[in-house]
Each structure stands twice: as structure tokens, then as C-alpha cells.
Amino acid sequence: MKDKVFSQLKPAVLGLIIVAVLLLSISVYIVTISSEHVSQFMITHVFQKQYSTTTVEQTPSSISPENVAHEIISEPIFNPAMATWEIATATAEWLPRDSAANFVFNNKIWIMGGLNGNGVTTNENNAVHYWEAEHLNDIWSSLDGISWIQESAHASWSARRSMSVIEFKDKLWMFGGWSPIDGYMNDIWSSPDGIIWTKEKEHAAWSVREGQTALVFNDMLWLMGGVDYDSRSVKNDIWYSSDGLNWFEATTSALWSPRWDHATVVFNDTIFLTGGMNLSKETFDDVWYSPDGVNWNMLTHTPLWQSRQGHGLAVLHDLIWSIGRLDDEEAGGVNDVWYSRNGFDWEKTESDPLWRGREDHGVSIFNDRIFVLGGMDADWKWRNDVWQLKI
Questions:
Q1: 389: buried, middle or exposed (CB in 10 Å: 19+, 13-18, 0-12)?
Q2: Residue 112 to residue 149: CA distance in whole angstroms
Q3: 383 within 8 A of 372, measured Cβ to Cβ
Q4: Does domain 80-390 have CATH number 3.40.570.10?
Q5: H or E segment at 66?
Q6: CA-based radius of gyration for the chain
Q7: Whose CB among 80, 155, 164, 381 lies 3.0–4.6 Å from 214's, allowing a Cys bridge?
Q8: Is 307 helix (H, G, I), strand (E, B) or coil?
Q9: In degrees, to the nearest 5, what angle opens at C-alpha 130 toward C-alphas 327 and 323?
Q10: Whole-number pLDDT of residue 147
Q11: 198 to each of 145, 189, 294, how far by Cα in Å?
């Protein structure tokens, strides 16, 4: 009886063993394929997030070794250290100038106002008779940064330098600066198109100045720092406005020292401030940040880069870029470009700019590139060249 039962069970047991082996083999195969798919997806995702300038949507069905290899070969790799400059135009249609207003609006890059100091520089310590320099109130625009169209030979506001122009709530707003006609100003102008300007206020709540910075942050306009040479007053006050007309003082004295020709930018919902100078001709190399425009903290006062003023800050490809430096005999050092992922750690591009070191040049992000316009170079010559950073 025992032998008979065993003999009857033997085929069934053998069948179960075969089925179990088959199931185990299929499971191993599925796990292997899934692991390969997950690994390929992770590699592709990390590659896209950290190194590619474009994002390709991935689904499990679209992932294969061939696809990953194709993406690695065909996708452009973003390496900020390898960024290089190329000239857009050596002599734009507009006159040489520095301290102009440079901005992007209505899918164009614009430049207006500023001063042309060529011909009024003395041989004694490169002293500039600024009061004799040609101050401008012309307005120019370009679709590509190469060819420029004059939108207005003489705007309704007086010729001036060092004014701020910001797009805010579907308008352009202009304020501050210095004019050989009116001196230091705190008037406020607006424009719907960049060409026709209307004076909104003769005097803002903040005092007259030039060399300030302005930006949009938390849906408000902000103004920071500046100088009034006439009263020998350097500023570190901060003002804000929700409508461009009515201004309120956020602080009379920010933690950073009074200065002008500093640079500011908004990055990751935070305001960053770098560099600048004071009346003692001291230039700064500190980096400050604020989460709200009122409370400030120093990130570092010893970055890898040299002190600078009249430079530019811009944000492109999730990086802060510090653009340019005056490297004349007095300032020394080099003209360079640095970038940072957090405002604290800075790296320099492998190649320094092809353009001559300068100050008070325009810096704008346009067509996914950084543009540099004009400025006064290290030979104390005012320029009308335009350069673009290739990334």
C-alpha cells in the first residue's frame, strides 16, 4: 500500500518541482529586467538633471540601452566652466557709454541713457570731467543684440546716467540717476512700451542718488544703496513699493556697509548682494543675502574672487553669474567671470573674457545667453561693443 501510494505521488511531486523551478526562473528574469530598467532610468534622470540643458520625459517603455546611449551622445552637456565669449558687434549703432540702463522687455534687449566720457579724460590720474561728458537720453532696442534700432533720439526725461529701469506689473519703471541739467534726482517715470515715458512723480520718498540697484522681489519693487556725491552721502538704506509710486523704507541702515556700484540679484527666492565701493575708493568683495529684503546675513567676506564694483550679477541655468571687473592699474588683478550654485562657493570659468576689463557695463539675460553691453574699459575708453556668453 505504501509503495503504491508513493508511486502514484511521484509524478505529481515531480510536476510541482518543475513548475516551481519555472516560476523561480521567471521571477529572477523579471527582477533582472526591472533592475536594469530602474538603473537606466536613474542614470538618465541624473544625467538630465545635472548635466543636460534639456529635459526628455522618460517612461519605462521608452528606456533602453540604445536610448540612453543616444541621449548621452546627442544631448548638449552643460559645463559652466567651459563657457566662452563671442562678439555680437564691435561697434553697435549707439554711441559708446557706461552707466546706461540696460534691460529686456517685449522680447527685445534695450539700452538707453548713460554717458560718453571719451574726450573728457585728463592725463592726470585718469581724472574724468564728468560734468563735461556727453550725457544721453536716447533709446535703442535689438532683437538679437547685433543689429540695433533707435526707438527715440531724445526721450522725455532729461539726459542722465546711473538710473534704474525695471519691468514691473506690465510696465517699465525708471527712477534716480544724475543729470548735468538737474543734478541728482529721485523722480519716477513709467512706460508701457519703452519709448513713450510719463513722469509719475517729481520726488520719491527716498533721497536723490545714483549707483543704486533695483529689482523685483516678492511682487514688489526694491531699491538699495547708492551715492550722492554732492552731499558726500553713501547709502545702505532699503526701500520697497507695491505700485512703483508709493515707497516705504524697509530699513534705514542694512547690515552691509554703505556703498554704490554694487550688484544685486534674486536667486532661489533670496536676494543676493555683492561688491560695490565707498567714497574712500574702497571696493568690496563680500557676499550678502536676505530672505525678505530687510534682514541680511553675510555669506562670506573672503570669496575666491577679487573685490569689484560696477560689475553685474545675473542668473542663468540655476547659477548666479558675476560678470566682469575693472582691471586698470589702480584696481589691478584680472577681468574675470565667476559662477555659483549657492552664493557661497564660487568657481571661475576656465577662460577669462575676450573683452577688455570694464565697469558700469550692461549685463542682461536674453535669448538664453548673457549679454555684456558697453561700459568704460581698463584703458578708460568708453565702449559700444556687445558680447554674448556661449554656454
A1: buried
A2: 12
A3: no
A4: no
A5: helix 65-74
A6: 29
A7: 164
A8: coil
A9: 30
A10: 98
A11: 27, 5, 30
What whole-number distance in Å separates Cα of residue 362 and Cα of residue 384?
A: 11
Q: Which residues of 173-189 are buried (b: 16+ CB within 10 A; e: fewer)?
A: bbbbbbbbeeebbbbbb
SS3 323: strand
Quote the cell numbers at residue 293. Answer: 529684503
pLDDT along the chain (391 residues), means of 10: 41 51 49 39 33 38 46 65 96 98 98 95 72 96 98 98 98 97 97 98 98 98 97 98 98 98 98 97 96 97 94 97 93 93 96 96 97 96 95 76
Residues 228-255: b if buried by 16+ CB within 10 A, e if exposed: bbeeeebbbbbbbbeebeebeebbeebe
Strand order in the sheet with 213-217: 213-217, 220-228, 233-241, 247-251
- List the one residue out of 358, 366, 360 whose CA is nearest residue 388: 366
Residue 125: predicted pLDDT? 66
The 8 Å CB, 24+ separation contacts for 243-248 are: 243/169, 244/168, 244/169, 244/171, 244/173, 244/188, 244/190, 244/200, 245/188, 245/200, 245/201, 246/205, 247/204, 247/205, 247/206, 247/223, 248/205
Neighbouring residues of 192: CB distance < 8 A, sequence distance ≥ 6: 170, 171, 172
Angle between helices 65-74 and 2-51 (to 10 degrees): 10
Domain segments of the chain: what residues? 2-74, 80-390
Cα-to-chain-centroid distance, residue 320: 6
User: Which amino acid does the sequence have at 114?
Assistant: G
Q: Are 214 and 222 in contact (CB under 8 A)?
A: yes
Helices and strands (H and E) in the chain: how many:
2, 27
CA distance 98 to 373: 9
Q: Which three cell numbers stand for residue 368?
A: 538664453
